[in-house]
Recover the amino acids of this structure.
């Protein structure tokens, strides 16, 4: 144990007395005792504090993990919803097709039965009248009446054919519109599940770009990260030392893109391409109706 040796204190005034090397028990204080005296405020139990930086880092790490988990849950939910939309669209389209086919077959069967019954009735009436009269005039009159009724049946049959064609022509725009809506859902769901397929859309659009110094590809934010990783592959499609930029654009739906250069823009958005297909089909149907 180390001891602190303190000099003796003299209470009287007079000549300085010689220093003594004798240690007096009442005049020393142990270091341990001094420590206990000077540190009378111990740490409170359980109150050891960590540096602020460590607590902040742990909080940020927990926040990142929570955000990542939430993003994964949202992605899984979006995938399930996309698959349900596709399945429902395909089911609705198949039900509509079956219903239209059944209605057309039923209508055509009823019309054919009515025409056959009318022809049979005309022939039976003619023969009955001819045999009842029992002479040539009766046969001739019955024959004429029979021919009239047969002609009426023929006209009704032609009218039914015309009505059927007209119904199909009137239904074509609706069928085209419905088909485009189903195609839009299927394509967007497929691109959402497989973002790598958006690369083919961008590559096809880049083939139309002329020789320029700078090309900017505006892509939907969902496909941006994937296409950014394909930068070198896309740049090889450009001629010379053309500069290539890939930018996210929230106005563009998933999978589509717009390519801008000094010569203008190339619209390769999914909705725009489906709209062009729809217009072409509508024009084709209209031309067929006019020719018919």
């Amino acid at each position: 144990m180390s001891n602190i040796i303190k000099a003796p204190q003299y209470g009287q005034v007079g000549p300085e007395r010689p220093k003594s090397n004798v240690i007096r028990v009442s005049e020393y204080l142990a270091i341990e005792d001094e420590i206990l005296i000077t540190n009378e405020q111990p740490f409170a139990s359980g109150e050891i504090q960590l540096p602020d930086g460590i607590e902040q880092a742990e909080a940020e790490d927990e926040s990142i993990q929570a955000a990542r988990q939430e993003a994964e849950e949202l992605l899984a939910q979006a995938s399930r919803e996309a698959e349900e939309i596709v399945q429902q669209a395909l089911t609705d389209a198949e039900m509509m097709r079956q219903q239209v086919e059944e209605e057309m077959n039923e209508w055509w069967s009823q019309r054919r039965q009515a025409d056959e019954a009318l022809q049979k009735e005309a022939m039976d009436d003619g023969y009955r009248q001819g045999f009842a009269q029992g002479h040539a005039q009766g046969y001739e009159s019955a024959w004429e009446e029979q021919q009239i009724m047969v002609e009426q049946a023929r006209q009704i049959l032609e009218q039914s054919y015309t009505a059927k064609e007209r119904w199909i022509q009137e239904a074509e725009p609706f069928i085209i519109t419905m088909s485009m809506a189903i195609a839009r859902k299927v394509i967007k769901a497929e691109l959402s599940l497989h973002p790598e397929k958006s690369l083919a859309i961008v590559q096809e659009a880049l083939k139309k770009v002329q020789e320029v110094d700078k090309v900017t590809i505006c892509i939907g934010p969902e496909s941006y990260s994937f296409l950014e990783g394909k930068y070198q592959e896309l740049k090889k499609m450009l001629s010379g030392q053309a500069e290539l930029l890939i930018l996210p654009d929230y106005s563009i739906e998933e999978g589509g893109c717009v390519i801008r250069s000094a010569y203008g823009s190339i619209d390769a958005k999914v909705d725009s391409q489906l709209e062009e297909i729809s217009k072409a089909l509508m024009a084709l149907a209209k031309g067929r109706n006019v020719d018919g």
Summary: The mean pLDDT is 71. Residues 52-133 form the longest helix (82 residues). The helical segments are 31-38, 52-133, 136-193, 198-206, 221-228, 231-235, 270-291.
